[in-house]
Structure prediction request, 422 residues.
Amino acid sequence: MADQTRPTTREQCAEADRNDELAVLRDEFALPDGVIYLDGNSLGALPRAAVARAADVVTQEWGTDLIGSWNKNHWFELPLRIGEKIGRIIGGGAGECVATDTTSLNVFKALSAAIAIQQEDVPARRVIVSERENFPTDLYMAEGLIALLDRGYSLRLIDAPEDLADALADDVAVVMITQVNYRTGYLWDLADTTRLVHDAGALAVWDLCHSAGAVPVRVAADGADFAVGCTYKYLNGGPGSPAFIWVAERHLARATTPLSGWWGHKSPFAMSESYTAADGGRRFLVGTQPIISMATMEVGIDLHLSVDEQALRRKSLALTSLFIELVETRLAQHPLTLITPRDEQHRGSHVSFRHPEGFAVMKALIANGVIGDYREPEVLRFGITPMYVGFADVWDAVETLRRVLDDELWRDPEYQLRGAVT
Ligand SMILES: *Cc1c(COP(=O)(O)O)cnc(C)c1O
Prediction:
């Protein structure tokens, strides 16, 4: 949507919803009345069809078909079948992507595979480059791997995207970057960055947690080496639904994993005494998969495959631009600082503002029906998921934020209390 046509009244927002071809997608989701859900970047909403699928996998497949389901209901093939679908969403080929485990574990697997390849080719390179602002678990997993390897590897953290080029000295083995930053929403150009990394002789491991399903991604065409990501955010897979790991075809034969469990074995049911890795991405499976969760998440993945991702991206940018503009024009007197890029080329699908009383402000907003979330320090984060958020929702959310700030609703002592999960 061009700037001059951006809505400036609630009626114009409602009009934009009426003209939005993607608006019908909202009916595919079960969202409670009276709630504007701006946290799909943390836990995607429930696809209605997932309820029936979950009931079926529990009552029929588990309850009635019992152990026969591994063959009859194709449970054994689920991580590959769904992995192949996720592969299509992120632009990877067949057999290169599997759905399994958590993003944290898949970061460990991707990093160790990349390091093993570099160890053979360029053993003197012992540095992993990442971002200080990366989601902490990615850095924690790298720390754990480095300690386990005990071979002089170290982590070099950059403070800003423009510092990457300088960090790429001839000692760098692997660069691990999260394409969309969880806090600011900064979006890296995957193709340009991967080229920079390769020109410096390193391999690129991409974390797509906030990009899979949020922005169009083409891992293979853009040259990535490895990619991981989760499915419970923009892919609406459900709480704790399995993550994914993708390996470029050129690395598949050499990509090894230290987590050599039986599900990654070439023939698991041969029960042989030693490990032989399966061909393709299957080797990144470790043990028995969480079938109920995996079967349920396929519904969200299928929903995504049915939608035009370019149209989704256009709507996402129209909504995030509208959100930024409304906050900055209608709430101008309040101390809100945008930390998300204005440049659409570098913006994912969420918008974050800092406010000195961010935590209490978010609690008050949630109590008033607008669910976003809070991230340290002082950050109000709003996930704008174009599958089920509309233009009038954005208007109403900003008006609620205005009321919380104008009337100082956040001062209520109740909103200062912190739970275990923020
Ligand atoms: C959400 C997120 C994770 C979550 O990891 P889990 O292992 O699923 O808990 C990891 N990395 C990034 C960049 C994320 O945004």
